[in-house]
Design goal:
Blueprint (H helix, E strand, L loop, with lengths): L7 H8 L3 H10 L18 H14 L4 H12 L5 H34 L11 H7 L4
Helix pairs in contact: 1-2, 1-3
């Protein structure tokens, strides 16, 4: 017996997101527009829950909505292979590594600036604010 189709609120509950997220994904084309009832209600198939979970998991791993759209299209393209998906995953890993390195530099710089501040005195003498005024930070 097939599961019943869901309204937007039912899909949101089942997928663990809010209704506006469903509508947003639909507007972005990440979620196909479902048929509507005569009263205008959207009726989503049970597979929409899996698609939303896929989107959520991909977002949690750092993929942008554009990248998620690409991943979803790879899934539908019979000419694509696991290698195509792996290539995108490898590029995302490299991007994450670059961002981690940039964050580490930011942290070291900010820690150095913060260490120079005694934590008392007027803000006009604050070395943190003075450092932020310079371009060398």
């Amino acid at each position: 017996m097939a599961e019943a189709h869901m309204t937007v609120s039912g899909l949101a509950r089942a997928a663990g997101v809010n209704s506006e997220t469903i509508r947003f994904y639909e507007r972005r084309g990440l979620l196909p527009a479902p048929p509507r009832t005569a009263a205008g209600y959207r009726l989503y198939p049970p597979s929409a829950v899996d698609r939303i979970r896929f989107i959520r998991h991909a977002k949690a791993l750092g993929f942008t909505l554009e990248e998620i759209e690409e991943l979803l299209s790879l899934r539908r393209d019979p000419g694509c292979t696991c290698g195509d998906v792996k290539g995108r995953a490898d590029r995302k890993i490299a991007d994450i590594d670059r961002r981690i390195a940039a964050l580490a530099v930011m942290r070291r710089t900010l820690a150095g600036i913060a260490a120079a501040c005694p934590g008392d005195g007027p803000t006009s003498d604050c070395p943190i604010l003075a450092a932020l005024d310079t371009e060398e930070t």
